[in-house]
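Researcher: We're reviewing a set of sequences before deciding which ones to prioritize for further study. For each one, I'd like a predicted 3D structure that I can look through quickly. This is Cytosine permease. If possible, include the structure in C-alpha cell form so it fits the rest of the review sheet.
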Amino acid sequence: MKQETKYQIEIVAPKHRHMSNWDMFATWIGANANNGTWYVGGVLAACGLLTALKVIVASSTLSYLCLSLVGFMGYKTGASTMSLIRGSFGVRGSYVPSFVNLTIYIGWTAVNTFIAATSVSYLLHDIIGWPVYGQPGGAKGLIMGVVVMSILHFLSVSVGQRSVQIVERIGIILVILFVLWESVVVFKTVTFSQLLSWQAPAKLHMTAGAGMDTLAAFNLAWVIAGADFTRFTRKRSGATKMPFLGAFTGVFWFAFIGLAATMSIAITSGTYDPNNSDPSTIASRLGLGVLALLVIILTSMTANAVNLLAAGSALSNIFPKIRLRPALWAVTAIATLVTLIPFAIGSFLAAFTAFLDYIGMVLGPMIAVMLIDYYWRHHQNYDVNELASSKGQYWYAHGVNWIALGCWVLGVAIYLGLKRLPFVANVTGATFIDMVIIGFIYMGLMRIFYPMKTKSA
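Model: Here's the predicted structure for Cytosine permease, in C-alpha cell form for your review sheet.
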C-alpha cells in the first residue's frame, strides 16, 4: 500500500490573525497607489480622458470583485492563494500556476524597482550632479538606484510579514499627501476642460478594448495574492470589502493622476510620449522637487512589500523545503537581475507592454478555474488538510488535475483568438470574456469526468 506523502502547507489560525480592517485597506490601497499604477495611467492617456476613466472603473470593478472572492477563500481557510489553488489544479498541478505567479510578482517587483531607480537617478542629479537616466552617462545613476532599492527590499523582507504592515502604515499617509499635492499642481497647470478635449496622435491612439486588457492585466495580478494577506484578518469584511475598496481606491486615484499628469505635460509641451509617463520624469517636469522623488521611492517599497511576499509564497509552494524567509531573499535577488532587462533592451515601455500581454494571457483563465472550483464545485468548502495530502480528493491523477491545466492552456489560446476580433479589440477587451468562457468549459468538463459524490441522508 502506497504511503501517504504530506506536502507543506501553512495555515494561519484565528488567534494569530492580527491585521485590522484599516491594515487591510492600507495594504491594498498601498499596493495600487504606486509608481506602476501612475505609469499605467500615463499609458491609458492614449485612450482619451473619458474612455480611460470608463476603462479604469469597469476593468477595476470586475477585477477586484475577483480579489474579494479570493480574499474570502483566504479568510475562511487560513491558507495562501497558491496553497488554495491546489484544490483546482491538484497538489502537484499547482506548481504550474505557482511558477506563473512567481514570474509575475518578480516582474512587478522589477517594474516598480526600475521606476524607483529612475527617481534615484534624478535625486543623484539634484544632489551631486550625475546625469539622469536617458542622458549620456545616466546609466550609472539608474544602476545605483537599482542597488539602493534592492538593499531596501532585502531589509524589508528580512523582517517578514510584519514589515508589510509597518511600511504600509507609514507609506499610506505620505502617499495620500503626495497625490493631493500632485493633483493641485496638475490642475494649476491645465484645466479639466483641456484634459477632456485632448486626444493622443492617431498613431499612438489606444482603443477601449486594448485599455480594458491593459488594466485587467495590471489588476488581476493582485487577485492571485489576495489570500496571502486576508488569511491574517479576523473579520470577513476585512477579507472582502477592504481589499476591494483599498485596491479600487488606489488604482483609480493614482491611475487618474498619472493620466492627468501625462496629459498636462502633453498639452503644455505639445508632445505626448508614453515612454516618459513614469512619475519621476513627470514630477521633475512639474517642478515637484526632491521630496516628491523620495515619496516615489517609498511607494515602490509599499508595492514591492506585497509583490515579494506573494513571490516568496509561490516559490515555497513549488519547493516546499524552502522556508518563507529564504524564499523571500531568493526572489528579491532574482528581481534585482530582472530589473536590468529594460535597460538592456533600451525601452522600458516595450518591456512593460510585453509583460502586461503575458499577464493578461495567463492569469484570466487561471483565476476563472480557481473561483469556479471553490464556489461552484466545492460550495466554499475546502478540506485544508487534504490540500497537503497525496491521498486526498485534490490529488486527482498523480497529483495533477489535467482538466484544469487543459482549460488554462485553452484559455490562453482563446484569449489570443479573441484579441483578433474587431469588436473585442476595440470595445470590450478579451480578458473577462475569456474568463467566462473558460469558467463554463471547466464546469462542464469537471461535471463529466469528476462528478461530485452526493452525501446520503
